Amino acid sequence: MNLYYFDHAASAPRRDEVTDAMAPWQRGVVGNPSGSHRAARDARRAVEEARDEVAAFVGAKPGGVIFTAGGTESCHLAIAGVTNRHRRTHERSEIVISRIEHHAVADAAEMMARDFESVSVRYVEVDADGVVDLDSLSDAVSSRSALVSVMAVNNETGVRQPLDGVNSLAKSLVPGGVATHTDAVAAAPWLSLPVITATTDLISICAHKLGGPVNSGALIVRNDVPFDAVTPGGGQERGLRGGTVDVAAAVGLAVALRLTERDRADVYDRVADYQHTLMAALSLLPGCAITAPAAARVPGTVHVTFEGLASDEVLFLLDQAGVCASAAASCSSGAAVPSHVLAAMGVEADRARGSLRLSMGAETTEADVEALIAILSSVVFRLRDEVTAAPGRKD
Amino acid sequence: MKVLVAMSGGVDSSVAAGLLLEAGHDVVGATLKLWGGASDSGCCSVADVDDARRVAQTLGIDHHVFNYTEEFERHVVAPFVAGHLAGTSPNPCIECNRHIKFELLFERATRLGFDAVATGHHAQVEVRDGHHLLVRGADGDKDQSYVLGYLREDQLAMLLLPIGHLNKHEVRAEAERLGLRTWDKPDSQDVCFIEASKGREVFLRQRATLTTASIVDVTTGEELGTTPAAELMTVGQRRGVVPGRDGERRYVSRVDVAARRVEVGRLEEILISTVALDADSLSFSHATLSDGSAVLVQSSAHGRAQRATLRHDGRWWLELAAPSRPIAAGQSVVLYRVDDPTVVEGAAIVSRT
């Protein structure tokens, strides 16, 4: 069966150059980069070369790059690390996050609020397009704020967030300014991070959305924002992230970033065309609504809702036809669940139940998009017929 | 045949999937995510979904998770709570089968192009004289025909029950032979959305205020004591009921939550000879029964069936052949054939007399 892969936003296809570059660090003697002998020095050099590339990709100093085991850990380190430092010197610590953050951010913030009485979470609302409302942000930021965290691009809808506005408010509303973090995991494949995060203090990225390995990411620190380690043991990464640095993971991240940067303009334009084609075709399907059709978005993601259909059923039939896609929100059991992002945007629950995220990347071809349109159309028409024909349906 | 197997993560549905695969069917597994809250019953938790998925992987079949948490809340949990608050005792497993598995899942399976749905229930579908009949499982101790009592013939025609002809140790032996990791998993017990360690009372108190009530002797009118939660008293129950002044056991004969009154009596005082049925719920598996039909009646999952006559005189009711302990309103009775006590004829919810 042909495989039509439209779930890049969950995990992008691993690139051969990444696998090849990692291979030498995954067999035989691989020195511990903290050691002093030649094997250790070789490993250390590979790590530091990778660090330089990551720093250049984000537009930061190499000393600000902390290698982590992925986006979730990076976000967690930013939220917990900054809040822990803040709460030791302040009576109240408020973590300001948007309603549409990934669970990596939202759950870390809620965990801190649960564990420490002096910590609480302030939520910033979004508009109907899922764009952070800067008035709501102004209301939320105060002298009690420990950190403002707003993602660069939403992982479900692909909608871009106004980071410039977020950063300038965070820096200007309060004397001395509030530290800012952005989860740039969904933005990194598409947007130039030195440009969009120029004024952000802390940036989280990961490798596997870029064709790199899973369990590899980085937290990039600009402007020497003070924070505490979450796992201090061992003193690695300037004492901010203990544990032996995974050489292969760091190399894989660096190569994935390099390839992304090299191909960015071409991939962006090509996939933007696919996005237009897809949105135009899907908008003709009965009951289909494009989510936030007019909002600024990255090219890779098309998010739609189907009135009266269940995501479970659409995904099942797509899967049977070889299309890999996602409802974007799922629980630990793997079941599709109502999305907190759509809820924050005011999408009615009935529509949200029929949500579908189609996400593309460098490997997507025009033929893939044509096949997807044909398959998805037949799935929707089939379910529509069945839904209206089903006798005695009560709910 | 293209078959969707509902896989709970237990040994029975694991083996059901394995046997269908061996029989040459095109098998896909699905686990229904029903309850989003805490659970310790060994059904539908994340760990159970993992078990089901792992079994599907071992068998080499596709596995999907279907989210029915909203529907489960609406059709099973909310009515369960409302029923208790009204002093009745609905059976949530029956409601789940009726509304979720055999209504929503069947509809979904049809939409998705499946020819049949299979479950791991201990019961059998037999075709006799061109009719699909629901028949008790071969393992008398594990028979689950009671919780499937509302299935109609059109549903039975697309239902496969691949382990119904096996007894439990044969099912476990099959699971071991197939190399399924659920082979020695304990049977699930209790209601999946109520934590066994906390019980029904804790669950209901999270959702409602329970009613303190007087416990009154049905014959003398004497108040024997009080209960902190009339909603938890079930007609026919003896446990938790204070004995009468004479020291004899008392049984609950009537629960009136609104009047804050629970009536109790000696066993012989509370026995019943008729059972009122809720006409809307009455369902016949294949042939429609009428006034005067002799039936066997079973009123709990593993209770003994007793002889009765179905009556229809504007209302539907059962005339029991011998006096019986009362059956709580909200419970279901399942009717079996007198001349072949393994065959299900229909089911109905008991209403208040």
Structure description:
The complex is a heterodimer of chains A (395) and B (353). Chain A has helices spanning 16-22, 38-58, 71-89, 103-115, 134-140, 163-172, 193-196, 247-282, 311-320, 340-344, 349-352, 366-389, and strands at 4-5, 65-68, 93-98, 119-124, 145-149, 179-183, 202-206, 217-221, 288-290, 301-306, 323-324, 355-359. With 395 residues, chain A is of the alpha/beta class. The mean pLDDT of chain A is 94. Chain A is built from twelve helices and twelve strands. With 353 residues, chain B is of the alpha/beta class. Chain B has three domains: 2-120 and 162-178, HUPs (Rossmann fold), CATH 3.40.50.620; 209-270, SH3 type barrels, CATH 2.30.30; 272-349, Elongation Factor Tu (Ef-tu), domain 3 (Beta Barrel). Chain B contains eight helices and 18 strands. In chain B, strand 15 and strand 16 form a beta hairpin. In chain B, helix 1 (11-22) crosses helix 6 (168-178) and helix 3 runs antiparallel to helix 4 (92-111). The interface between A and B is medium-sized, with 22 and 23 residues.
Mean pLDDT of chain B: 90
Number of domains of chain B: 3
User: How many strands, what sense, and barrel or not for the largest sheet of chain A?
Assistant: 7 strands, mixed
Largest sheet of chain B: 7 strands, antiparallel
CATH topology of the largest domain in chain B: Rossmann fold
Instruction: Specify the CATH class of the largest domain in chain A.
Output: Alpha Beta
Strand composition percent of chain A: 5-15%
Major β-sheet strand ordering of chain A: 2-8-7-6-5-3-4
CATH topology of the largest domain in chain A: Aspartate Aminotransferase, domain 2
**Per the principal axes of the C-alpha atoms, what is the gross shape of chain B?**
globular
Radius of gyration of chain B: 21 Å
Proportion of beta-strand residues of chain B: 25-35%
